Amino acid sequence: MSLLLCFLTPSALSLLLLCVVGRAMGLDGLQVTGCSRWGAPGNRSLFQDGDVIIGGLFSLHYIPSAVEQDFTKLPHYKPCTGLDLQSLKYMYAMAFAVEEINRNSSLLPGLKLGYRILDSCGRYPWALQSALSLVGGDAHICSWHLFSGQVVPLLIGAASSTTAMMLSRLLRPLSVPLISFLASCPCLSDRSKFPNFFRTIPSDVYQAQAMAQLAIRLQWTWVGAVHANNDYGRLAIQEEIQGKGVCLEFIEPVHRQTIVRDAKRAALTIQAATARVILAFTWYTDIKKVFLELAKRNVTDRQFLASEAWSTSDDLLQDHTVSKVASGVLGVAIRSSAIPGFENYLRHLHLTYHPDDEFLREFWEKEFGCSLVDKSSHSPSSPSASLPLCSGMESLEGVQHPFVDTSQLRVAYNVYLAVYAAAHALHSLLSLSHLNNFNSFFNILCFQLMQHLNKVNVITSHGEMFYFQGADFPPKYDLVNWQKSPEGTLKLVLIGRVDGFDLHLNESAIQWSTGSNQVPVSVCSARCPPGTRVANRKGEPVCCFDCFPCADGEISNTTGSLHCERCPVEFWSNADRTACIPRQLDFLSFNETLGITLTTAAVSGAIVTTAVLVVFLYYRQTPLVRANNSELSFLLLLSLKLCFLCSLVFIGRPSVWSCRFQQAAFGISFVLCVSCLLVKTIVVLAVFRSARPGAEGLMKWFGPGQQRGSICFFTCIQVIICAIWLSLSPPMPQRDLGFRGSKVTVECAMESVVGFSLVLGYIGLLACTCLLLAFLARKLPDNFNEAKLITFSMLIFCAVWVAFVPAYVSSPGKYVVAVEIFAILASSYGLLLCIFAPKCFIILLRPEKNTKKHLMAR
């Protein structure tokens, strides 16, 4: 109501409401004076009698810019003389629809529909005056008397949202429905404030959503905006940025009163911006000023998105200067539909058939440049006084004129639908009331007509469902493209439709502003490719971001992913981080460098041991070989060869049997080897102890049989430990999924750490005992004493296996196996070299020392 108070003083508003309430109460003889200060646009109207009269309110005239004035001040005396041909077409669409309904025997049978259409001149006070005159029953509100004539139970009109709000509030006390064909403000959807309002144009909410959907469809996430500095523009921008995925680089409001200054500022901003797509929610006159400023600056590579307020403007399409800037415009437009027979109706309009149609008379005189009455009938000040008399041959048939062009019926079709909605509501009401007397009918009309409008649900001639959702009409739009014509102007091309939330777009039919076939790019940051994720920049819009690669083991397989997804445990990300692939099985194989190196070392050790064995066999009769208990030496060499060869069992893909055999082979081979050294050391000590007086019988306990029995005994203990361990809880091949990597390690998992610890512990016990005894015997006389050699070898052996434990525990994946093989080889080489290298040196290179005399020397 605040808008109404802007134009009406409290006393004037009270006067209007008094008139309405007085008429509603049937106070005959009530006369209102003092209304002349509003200066009505004239008494002209278009009227057709009928049983039920519906009202029409159109802005048929406008005040030319040469006589524009400040309408915030009363009174208004400037004439409203400019004839609007588009509004004239809307008026005749209403008249055509009424005539078509009256010819339809199934709709309102037995009842003739009439109309009374008045001109509001596009001004709020005159719209209020005309509306009150329609519901009051007389065209002269300033001096009308309430008489028993027909009144208008329903009004079709309000070409602007502000007018619609004012009229709805004004007519609400009378429960008179108002159906608008052009008021699109979302605020009018509020049924608590505007219960009597209906419309056949979608709310601007749906238009903004359609434009946002179009921008997202074309991947325009970084755009600029120029909007009218009113609710229409502000609401559209608000809808555009609320969770739609579109970011605005700039927002430039333009105001009608300061359009020249605002247009220059907007043009400079557009020129400097990085956004290549510009949304424009303005009236066509405002955006034209912006286009002209851009043309001065030669800014012709911007892609504009147009609202329905200017997307179909002929004034812009036919302007050659505008065409330099606005080529390729994409726009949302009111749905265009054909009205069968309407073009023929317009072309057959003639004053011969409509002698009382003053609007047609004015159009005729303007378009054909002649007067329909003699000059003597005109007042000297009349514009028609100077015109020649018409010949009577003038006709609209065969004439190319915008007035008779019905190829793009948009608002006219909305008017057409509004009339049919009113007719169906009246039909439904009449079917229920069974009333034929209109005076009785009007008594219930005000209370029930709105209810029946809410229930209207029909199928149009195009096969589409028509119904009201509260006040609103189901959203349907055309998507249009401005394309250059051979004449240098622009033409309108249909490229798609919007039905509700479904957008249908033919991208191949679009002519872009850049002239190429590629969709213009307008982004702050290019969309992150697969394999990366979006990382928002602090303090910047969400459309400005960086792209970070996904971490190892994570992927993103879509463009513009906000986060990366972790692969399942048995999968890993590929090199591009775009897909999860099965993790490769990883184990120490014979084909890799580490495996080849260890295999070579093991085989080499086995060959060297064999070579030493051959040398010892060949020189077995020499004092050096015989003096050092050749049988134990041969057994020691055999066990060392087994130690070298058992390391090969650890290489290759683990299996059930290899996991069991490798630990048993390792444990038994090393116990056999250490047992031989231990017995050798004990024999050395026994020999020297027996040389003392009273100890001659000591050696009978360490004869060859006892030596072999001791080695067998020590080895059997290890065999028993391994047998129990492998029978109760043997190592099993298992995939180690704990380590996150592109490979999954297949290893022999120790099910029982106790069993493995007993195997190692027993080897360590024998080795420590051997080391201790060898250390005690290291200073015994004679050159054949090999206790020193055993001491050094056992020191190396113990050092290797002490270092093995922490290295084994801390090594990842297959390197656990490599550490164990390395410990086996290192300790084996240590034993082989420390014990047999000096002997081979004497046998092969110093044969003169290989004598009993030399060996017995101290």
Automatic annotation (TrEMBL):
Residues 1-26 form the signal peptide. This is Olfactory receptor C family, r1. The keyword Coiled coil does not apply. It is a multi-pass membrane protein. GO terms for cellular component: plasma membrane. GO terms for molecular function: G protein-coupled receptor activity. It comes from the Eukaryota. Residues 594-858 form the G-protein coupled receptors family 3 profile domain. Gene3D superfamilies: 3.40.50.2300, GPCR, family 3, nine cysteines domain. It is found in: Cell membrane. Coiled coil: none annotated. CDD domains: 7tmC_V2R_pheromone (cd15283). Keywords: Cell membrane, G-protein coupled receptor, Glycoprotein, Membrane, Receptor, Signal, Transducer, Transmembrane, Transmembrane helix. Its main location: membrane. Belongs to the G-protein coupled receptor 3 family. Pfam families: 7tm_3, ANF_receptor, NCD3G. The chain crosses the membrane at residues 594-619, 631-652, 664-688, 709-728, 753-777, 789-809, 821-845. The keyword Oxidoreductase does not apply.
